[in-house]
Design goal:
The protein has 17 helices and eight strands. The strands form four sheets. It has a two-stranded antiparallel ribbon. The chain has a two-stranded antiparallel ribbon with strand order 2-3. The protein has a two-stranded antiparallel sheet with strand order 5-6. The protein has three domains: 328 residues, Cytochrome Bc1 Complex, Chain C (Up-down Bundle); 131 residues, no CATH class; 26 residues, no CATH class. A hairpin with a 5-residue loop joins β7 and β8. With 555 residues, the protein is mainly alpha-helical. The longest helix has 40 residues. 59% of the residues lie in helices and 5% in strands. 28% of the residues are buried. α5 crosses α10, α6 runs antiparallel to α12 and α14 packs across α15. It comes from Mycobacterium bohemicum. InterPro entries: Cyt_b/b6_N, Cytb/b6-like_sf, Di-haem_cyt_TM. It is a multi-pass membrane protein. One of its GO terms (molecular function) is quinol-cytochrome-c reductase activity. It catalyses: a quinol + 2 Fe(III)-[cytochrome c](out) = a quinone + 2 Fe(II)-[cytochrome c](out) + 2 H(+)(out).
Length: 555
């Protein structure tokens, strides 16, 4: 105990010495008092961050054993079906990692699953930002950073699963990288020779992709993630409308200790889930594919899900060739141009919306998707477009499994790509408008109770439960919509009761249940009380600090 006290005393003296020289205590305390909202949707970005950390850790381990050389060797490893087969050193080292390196297959599969989770979480995170309007001023830069991260993640993943030089990765390189490059007018041939060092496949493309995969793209992505986190930290966090929440405060929990503990636990959960997936769910069994040989390319070759839409776009695009200045422009080039247009539209969308709506105000409160029907309909239309292209990427498998014509599946995809998005736009828009009307009807008339009452003159009416005060005739006073969810059932007001805490078979004692209920809302009550006291005491809006914090600085 004495040594523990002595150590704490020494640390306290050292901290005091540092603070007396550099005075960091006030700044650090302000930052540790930073408040973050507690809505579950804000954890989507953390999933991307934690999966990226897992990617870095597993990638470093794989780098120690992978040889990116394309030199031909004869495989003499432990995997008997491929013994004596000619293959590149890259493929042979990937087999060695899978079968001979201790934990190699586990780490390789965790790395692949983490890459998929990273791309998926960025997509869902961007969708949340899009549909809630979190990209509006002053956060346009963060949207641009997130869009660039998604694009980089797509190409980083493509380069990553091209490294083993197996049959599937070689097919992807030939179809998506070599063919499109060769089809570019004027400079296509020269560019292809610069990338591949000659004809496909050459002997330099895997080492070059390896350098990009482990050095260039990770460095850029790490810098973008750091910039993104810095902007989130210093611009304050957005939050959904609710009691006590304004454009000038943040209601939630402090970084220390609550948010830090939650984030640490969530990182452990994400890493644990990826570990379970890497250990239990097989992915990319390269030993079943064999080394890349152009003569063995067959149907059933698809990329990972985040690039399936590009493969579907290639399959659905008509075989149109354009001729310009005695140069042939094949269909694949048009697809690449269309991909560039889609990426550009994704990046500049906040500026387009600001241009067409004229909204130049600062926004710290989020919107419900129903309150921005045009934006929500555009997003739904984009999702429909993405789904059609994704399903079209494996139309050959669909045709084979369901015994239908491949041409029929192609034409269904072409028609769906053109017809389905406008239909989804119209349905989404009308749905948003109807939800707005439903909210305003409840605010004006109250919640339907299901109780039918007969009036003295014989008419029947349904009794409504007002959400606010009533006039002298008992009619509800219409309330103004504030952007927060509107209760539409009596159970939302607590009239139906709620199940008590406890296990599946036994309820908690009444005293313990009451204590749990009080503690569950204690932080919210303290935050609202402190906010009300500060607003009433000095006339200034609260700055989002946690109750009990002496600082009155920005969060």
């Amino acid at each position: 105990m004495s040594s523990r006290i002595d150590m704490s005393t020494v640390l306290a003296h050292q901290a005091e010495a540092v603070d007396s020289r550099y005075h960091p205590a006030a700044a650090i305390r302000r930052q540790l008092n930073k408040v973050f909202p507690t809505h579950w949707s804000f954890l989507l970005g953390e999933i991307a961050l934690y999966s990226f950390v897992v990617l870095l850790l597993t990638g470093v381990y794989l780098t120690l054993f992978f040889d990116p050389s394309m030199t031909e060797v004869t495989y003499n490893g432990v995997y008997q079906p491929l013994r004596g087969v000619e293959m590149s050193k890259a493929y042979a080292s990937a087999l060695d990692i899978s079968f001979e390196v201790r934990g190699g297959l586990f780490v390789r599969q965790v790395h692949h699953w983490a890459a998929l989770l990273f791309a998926a979480s960025i997509m869902v995170h961007l969708a949340r930002i899009f549909f809630t309007g979190a990209f509006r001023r002053p956060r346009e830069a963060n949207w641009v950073i997130g869009s660039m991260l998604l694009i980089l993640a797509m190409f980083e993943g493509f380069f990553g699963y091209s490294l083993p030089d197996d049959l599937l990765s070689g097919t992807g390189l030939r179809a998506a990288f070599s063919s499109i490059t060769l089809g570019i007018p004027v400079i296509g041939t020269w560019l292809h020779w610069a990338l591949f060092g000659g004809d496909f496949p050459g002997d330099v493309i895997i080492p070059r992709l390896y350098a990009i995969h482990i050095l260039l793209f990770p460095g850029i992505m790490l810098a973008l993630i750091g910039l993104h986190l810095a902007l989130v930290w210093f611009q304050k966090h957005t939050q959904f409308p609710g009691p006590g929440r304004t454009e000038h405060n943040v209601v939630g929990v402090r970084v220390m200790p609550v948010f830090a503990v939650k984030s640490g636990g969530f990182f452990a959960a994400v890493a644990g889930l990826l570990g379970l997936m890497g250990g239990l769910l097989q992915i990319n069994p390269i030993w079943n594919l064999g080394p890349y040989t152009p003569s063995q390319v067959s149907a059933g070759s698809q990329p990972d899900f985040y690039l399936m839409w590009t493969d579907g776009l290639v399959r659905l695009w008509p075989a149109w060739e354009f001729y310009f200045w005695h140069h042939t422009i094949p269909a694949a080039v048009a697809v690449a141009v269309l991909m560039g247009v889609i990426f550009a539209a994704l990046i500049v969308y906040p500026f387009l919306e600001r241009r067409f709506t004229g909204d130049r105000a600062h926004h710290n409160l989020l919107q419900r998707p129903r309150d921005a029907p045009v934006r929500t309909s555009i997003g739904a239309m984009a999702i429909a477009f993405y789904i059609v292209l994704t399903f079209s990427s494996f139309n050959d498998i669909i045709a084979y499994q369901f015994d239908v014509s491949l041409n029929a599946t192609t034409w269904v995809g072409r028609i769906g790509m053109v017809v389905l998005p406008p239909i989804v736009y119209f349905v989404s828009y009308r749905w948003c408008v109807s939800l707005q009307r439903s909210d305003r009807a409840v605010l004006e008339h109250g919640i339907e109770t299901g109780i039918i009452r007969r009036l003295p003159h014989g008419a029947y009416i349904e009794v409504h439960q007002p959400l606010g005060p009533v006039d002298e005739h008992g009619h509800p006073t219409p309330l103004q919509y504030q952007g927060a969810p509107i209760p539409k059932r009596l159970n939302k007001l607590g009239m139906g009761g709620r199940p008590g805490p406890g296990s599946f078979l036994f309820a908690d004692p009444p005293a313990e249940a009451a204590a749990l209920l009080r503690s569950a809302h204690a932080v919210e009550q303290l935050a609202l009380t402190a906010l009300r006291e500060r607003q009433n005491g000095n006339g200034n809006a609260a700055n989002g600090n946690h109750p009990g914090s002496p600082e009155n600085g920005e969060v």
